[in-house]
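A note from the maintainers: we've had questions about how concatenated examples are separated. There is no special marker in the raw files; a new sequence line simply starts the next protein. For clarity in this README we add a label.
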Amino acid sequence: MKSRKATLVLATGVALTLGLSACNDSKSDKSDGKKGVTDAALSSIVNKSDKKGGTATYALSDVPDSLDPGNTYYGWVQNFSRLYGRTLTTFKPAAGKDGLTVVPDLAESLGKASPDAKTWTYTLRKGLKYDDGTPITSKDVKYAVERSNFAPEALSNGPTYFKSHLEGGDKYQGPYKDKNPNGIASIETPDDNTIVFKLKDAFADFDYLATFSQTAPVPQSKDKGAAYVQHIVSSGPYKFESYEEGKGATLVRNPQWDPKTDPIRPALPDKIDIRFKVNPVTVDNDLLADNLTVDAAGTGVSPQTQPKVLQSAKYKAMTDGSYAGATSYIGLNVNVAPFDNIHCRKAVQWGIDKASVQAAAGGAPKGDVATTLLPPTVNGYSKFNLYETPGDKGDEAKAKDELKQCGQPNGFTTSLTARSDRPSEMSMATAVQASLKKIGINMDIKSFPAGKYFQNFAGNPQYVHDHKLGMIMTAWGADWPTGFGFLDQIVNGSAIKPSGGNNVQELNDPAINKALNDAIANTDKTAREKAWGDIDKMVAENASAVPLIYRKNLLFRPTSATNVTVTQAYLGMYDYLLMGSSK
């Protein structure tokens, strides 16, 4: 890039232009005020209100990976944590395309980049305080990044972007092991309001990266590692009144939060209650009965409830069919036999009846048949299908030919994992099992709870190897809506972790790794966008990921929910910053 100004536009301009393709329509951001209009929240704010007070209630079918902003990788927690954790930048709480706009949060402005996009500087707003009244400083943001990226022994769930791209990130051992009180040298804090990130290579998407909850400040004196979740220090409008492991939490107003420093959070409810481990059908029924404000997971009603909703004119008019910007897929672990052989992987690619998988997920209302990892709503998507079959029902002849080439002419036995508390995913797994049995691939379905799915099971390589988990059901949405924000953490070898990883295939292809790193360092927006589709095709040729459906969420709006709008920034769920309750 030729100038600093141009580099700044580079990181934010994508967010402004993405909305045209990423949202379901392009109506203006106006509230129609109607509670009973199908898909109204896709492009407007439904039941708009500035009324303060009341309690917003949330429920979740399992437990979160963690409510600690530095130890989570679920999209709904990223969304929910914005109630009590402010980050350097964030996505604007707004309807339609405006919801993809990156705006300053803790910082006064978006990042100031060096001409080569390798150094990014942020200045914090004045007057920021924690819930105990102590000032928030740039050192707290630095410490938050260090603990969340460099201490997998305690905090294993988050992404690894900072570790991969900061100078010296491959050598720094994290704040719990490193003896240097100044921490990693490539994050500088010249004063209490300034933080400077020095990168190994240019990183054009850095303002997107700064939206991650890993930049929510943490005072080192209050950090207890994995136990920090028990006493999270708030920088947002709400603080924790109570937290019970495995049961739920209650948030109340943070009296130290100053709305003058926070132009994006209306903070309408007086209290927010969230309950864990609630049966998914119970969650749906509570939404329909107006006893609940929102399903925290944000993935939409369960397959059991869907017919009841769609067959009722009243209920259907209270739904939003949102593209989630996510793809459900199967990771074929390249370190578990026989999937160390590409032809065995290709046998699965050809053999799966994706039409039956789509039907099991809930049909067209829950997603379109996928042929790529990148969904159409993500910048850089390129349409292709390397394993095209008639009617998306599979091709037994081609699958059996691949089985012969991989030395398994009669098929083989393997295991398929899925999340036990996600009925749609379990139904999809059963459909996969039935379709592959036709070509001689027999599998046991092993189910695990969503809260620990990646930490203890599917994202834990040692467990995967020991238990020969060859096929892993998963779903992925963009960390931010560009090809790099979608692909890096699921196909880059640097994202493989001892636990909590999302590269469940354990794909570590030097050509793919290099292509990702080269593309994100390219300050030419057009070239970058083309690269994401090319890399997606490289992954398809490797055959270690089997795209199933481009996910949609059939979301339900209770009558009492106010300020309801869908945000594509957080996987097509409702924007929790705006929501309140009229009760």
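[label: protein 2]
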Amino acid sequence: MSPSAEVRPPSVRVSVVVPVFNPGPSFDDLIASLERQSLDASQFEVLLCDDGSDAPTQQRLEQVARAHPNVRVLALPHSGWPGTPRNEGVAAARGDYVQFVDQDDYLFDTALEKLVEYADAHASDVVVGREVGIGRPLPSRIFRKDIPDAKLGEDPLLEMLTPHKLFRTAFLRENGIRFPDGRVRLEDHLYVMQAYFAARTISILASVPCYAWVKHPGSASSSRIDPESYFPHLEAVLDIVEENTETGRMRDRLLRHWLRGKILKRLSGKRMLRYPAEYRTRLLDVVTPLVETRFGPGVDAGLAFPQRIRVALLRAGRRDDLVRFAEFEAGLKARVAVTSAEWSRGGGLHLAIKTAVTQGGREALVFDDETGRLSSLPLESLDELPPAVLVAGRELRNDRIEVFLEGEKPGTERRIVNEKLRDGGTVRVAIDPLKVFGGEGAPSALRLTAKVRRAGWTFAVPVTADAGALARAGASPLLAGSAVTITAADGGAVEVRRSGSGRLRDLAGKSVRRMRQLARG
């Protein structure tokens, strides 16, 4: 056969790099998800980067490799942290792109195909595929829409700094982007921020679920940090930001992410109260000077209202009041309740939903009519704080409620309300059963949940109701299709349930609707 007639094997589009160390049973879920990929197995490879696992694990990995021609095992000396195995995976990668996956997580079935297509279409150096939290909450703003050319400091890229992304392999090598070797906290932040600053195009693929980030008991993210060793690693991330930005709003906006998420979050509500007194003292001894030296007033100014109070107390050295403020936050309760439910003749379910934030059965967030200051705080002396700290102007203007319908499967939530909270806190919700229960594989039950933003605090809660308020809705009409009921489950949580397949009733409901529309026309 002449060289021109040779049949070349398809190129490897993506290398899936998995750092491995003595994985548990969930590793089988990862392998199964790779077997289900819609991208042909000849177009991707899997590099199992074994960080010195025990003999049974080594045998297990070799069995996986023997059963899958596109799987390779890299046997590595034990380093004790995933950074070095990931680096070795990138060095050995044959793919145009690298996708990092952790051994306890998995990929959705079309992930690799869609990620590669998206990267090709937009010449992306980095693609942030939609992550879905399994047993853990994840930020949602970053995945509200596809952004082919996301801008650092403008788009919500910092919300997701995990390494679970697609990177162009040549881009990583040309820019010398590596994970730190050895046990380094926040190594993912160091890596991703290097990539973000070096990238010409960063893309967000929000419309397709790509990565399942699974929460397991005892995972590193659930353990308490050691303040003295953790925060020097945070400063290394801050150094990268400062090296790549000028003094001003852009730098303040980026630095604010770590002040908010890595320091102030640790001083909030129930989390702060769980600390033993000795640990709390150690933590505050470390973070107080760090806040003074690394974060200026421009960083503070862009914080949300609760965080502005917290950082002001921290800067003022008012440690007892920091604890009192944490107690106040821990006692805040949001209740989102259905107060009325009725069916329209057109087949829609109409709900009135009321929101309240209370503490001890009373309204918790009380603002002075004249000054606009929060007056319900149980602190020693409010007058000693800068007056502007207790004013929640922009936050009150942004009070909002989102209502969702959620099935049992992860990633199936549908937002049905996204409105500002008005005086009284009541919103109207309309649900069309033919739409929410339509389509192949539609769930038979959907629960209502809500996310409430009030004065800068955010609450994620189930929508509840008294059984009596729902009973008055009665039976669903013909134009709703299959018989649908709205009920209060255990604890009062509201569910909308469909009885049986009801295909004939769905067809009848749709037909009558079309006839009515034609008649109106």
